[in-house]
Amino acid sequence: MKFIIATNNPKKLIEMERILAPLGISAVSAKDAGVKLDEVEENGTTFAENSYIKAKAACAKTGFPAIADDSGICVDFLNGGPGIYSARFAGEEATDEDKNNLILAKLGDTKNRGAHYTAAITCVFPNGDKLQVEGKCFGEIAYEPDGDGGFGYDPIFLYEGKSFGTFTAEEKDKVSHRGNALRMMRDELKKYLEGNDAYK
Asked: Between β-strands 162-163 and 130-141, what pairing exists: parallel, antiparallel or unpaired?
């Protein structure tokens, strides 16, 4: 069973493939399916709204069920920012290192370093049905980057005192925002597919 994963981030695709595979779901990018997705304006005000915009557009373009996530880091000291602007926080062309350094510079030596990751995942089916979940992972911002694993803000996000940048993929899947959300989505998909003759 083929599902389109509406992302241009190969590391996100790998995470989703790993967790959805036990359901018999073949998670493929639009590119791998031979389709070029149009750029969509992520003009939602929440992670959930933006993930729905992306999944709906990918489903309409490909005719396959589509899954999209919108995720980011929410830092207490920054009043929950960068939040939905996490990917563009330091500018469109910024590297992960640039984004991490900007957060570290804004926090300076403050002891108020609480933060959490959020991932909203939406699955849209060709018949218009929608499944949506949201996962979170709470931790804090480090004083300096550690590790080169993961992606995004992982090197400066501490979970139980350890940087996500030092986690193995399996360790991260067990506790991460996306891992939590994908497990919820997996359960929702299982119920949906079992109750839908078109997917049996």
From this structure: unpaired
User: Which residue, among 171, 170, 173, 139, has the nearest Cα to 156 in the 3D structure?
Assistant: 139
| Percent of the chain whose pLDDT exceeds 70 | 98
Residue 85: what residue type?
A: Y
**Residue of 70, 76, 109, 154 with catalytic role:** 70
For residue 90, the surrounding DSSP H or E stretch is: none
* Rounded Cα gap, residues 181 and 133, in angstroms: 6
What is the per-residue pLDDT for 200?
A: 54
| Phi, psi torsion values for 34, nearest 5 degrees | 80, 25
The count of structural domains within the chain is 1
At residue 199, the pLDDT reads 62
CA dihedral angle for residue 78, residue 85, residue 184, residue 38, rounded to 10 degrees: 180
Positions of the chain with pLDDT lower than 50, given as ranges: none
**pLDDT tens, position by position, 18-40:** 878 887 888 888 888 888 888 88
DSSP state of 100: H
76 is catalytic: no
In terms of Cα–Cα distance, which of 10, 40, 41, 42 is closest to 28? 10
Give the domain CATH number at 36. Answer: 3.90.950.10
Rounded to whole angstroms, the Cα distance separating 186 from 188 reads 5
**The domain containing residue 178 runs over which residues?**
2-199
Taking CA atoms, 82 is separated from 8, 38, 195, in Å, by: 20, 25, 39
